[in-house]
Write a structure and sequence with these properties.
Elements (H helix, E strand, L loop, with lengths): L1 H10 L11 E11 L7 E7 L9 E7 L8 E8 L8 E8 L11 E3 L7 E8 L5 E8 L6 E8 L4 E9 L13 E6 L16 E6 L9 E5 L3 E2 L10 E5 L2 E6 L3
Antiparallel strand pairs: 1-11, 1-13, 1-14, 2-8, 2-12, 3-4, 3-11, 4-5, 5-7, 6-7, 8-9, 9-10, 12-16, 15-16
C-alpha cells in the first residue's frame, strides 16, 4: 500500500521507506461540486490546540494529481518548544512521484533509492490558532506547486516549499483523498503496544478552493485505522465545519 510507505518516509528525519506504519485514524475529504479539470489550489484548515508540544504525531492530508501514480502529502508535526519557550510546529510538503524536481531551499530529494521531493520548515507560533495549509499551482498551466502555512489573524504566511511534477501531470483530483493521524514512533513496529499510545487531539476542517466550479468542500467523520482499532482511546466530536479527533491515553 503506497500510503504506508509515504507516511513512514515523513516520520523519519529524512525520506526513507519503512516496514510498517503507525496510522491510527483516517479522515476523508471531498467537494460537492468539482471542476472537470481539477483544482488549481486547495486550502486545508487544521488546529492543534490540544496537541502536546512533543515529537511523535503527524497530522496530514493527502492530495492526488491527475496522471500521477503517487500522491502528495501536506501536514504538521508538533515539536518541543524552542530555547526561548516559544511553541514550534514542523510543516511538511512532499511529493512521492518519480521525476519530481525542485530548486527550493526548504526542499530535498528523497534518499535511499526512494522517489520524490520532501520539503519542511519549522514555524514558531501558537498552537491555539487555526492554520491553513494552502497548496496552489505556482504558474497557470504549469506542473509547479507551492505550499504555504498561513494564519490570517497574525498575518503568518510561510512558504514550506515548491516542486515541479513530471510533464503531463494534471491538477488536483477528487478521487480517494483523505487525511490521517500517524504516531511516528510506530512506523517501524509491526506490533505496537496500544495502551501506551500518548494522548493527542487535532481538529480537521472542511477544505476550500478558489478554483472556479469547486463548491462545498467537506470532511467526513474520521474513523480508526491500523493495528489498534478499539484499543487506542479513540474519540471523535463534530464541531463547526469539521471534526475534533482524540487518540491515546494520558
Amino acid at each position: 500500500m503506497k500510503l504506508i510507505a509515504t507516511v513512514a518516509a515523513l516520520c523519519a528525519s529524512a525520506p526513507s521507506i519503512a516496514l510498517a506504519s503507525g496510522l491510527v485514524s483516517h479522515v476523508f475529504w471531498s467537494f460537492d461540486e468539482f471542476p472537470d479539470d481539477g483544482l488549481t489550489d486547495i486550502n486545508f484548515p487544521i488546529r492543534l490546540d490540544h496537541a502536546p508540544h512533543e515529537e511523535g504525531y503527524f497530522f496530514a492530508q493527502q492530495i492526488e494529481f491527475s496522471n500521477s501514480e503517487n500522491r502528495s502529502i501536506v501536514g504538521l508535526q508538533p515539536r518541543p518548544d524552542n530555547d526561548d519557550g516559544e511553541s514550534t510546529i514542523h510543516a511538511v510538503f512532499a511529493s512521492f512521484q518519480d521525476q519530481t524536481t525542485t530548486e527550493h531551499s526548504n526542499c530535498h530529494y528523497a534518499a535511499d533509492g526512494d522517489t520524490g521531493v520532501w520539503c519542511a520548515v519549522d514555524v514558531d507560533h501558537d498552537y491555539g490558532r487555526t492554520y491553513y495549509l494552502v497548496v496552489e499551482n505556482s504558474q497557470p498551466g504549469s506542473e509547479t506547486w507551492k505550499r504555504s502555512i498561513q494564519e490570517p489573524v497574525t498575518g503568518l504566511n510561510v512558504v514550506i516549499g515548491e516542486w515541479t511534477l513530471p510533464p503531463g501531470t494534471g491538477h488536483i483530483t477528487n478521487l480517494e483523498n483523505y487525511g490521517f493521524i500517524e504516531y511516528c514512533p510506530w512506523h517501524d513496529r509491526p506490533s505496537p503496544s496500544c495502551d501506551v499510545l500518548p494522548r493527542t487531539e487535532v481538529s480537521f476542517f472542511s477544505p476550500s478552493s478558489k478554483t472556479k466550479g469547486a463548491t462545498d468542500g467537506f470532511i467526513a467523520e474520521p474513523f480508526e485505522f491500523g493495528d489498534c482499532i478499539g484499543k487506542e482511546g479513540f474519540a471523535v466530536e463534530e464541531i463547526a465545519d469539521g471534526w475534533k479527533v482524540g487518540v491515546g491515553f494520558d
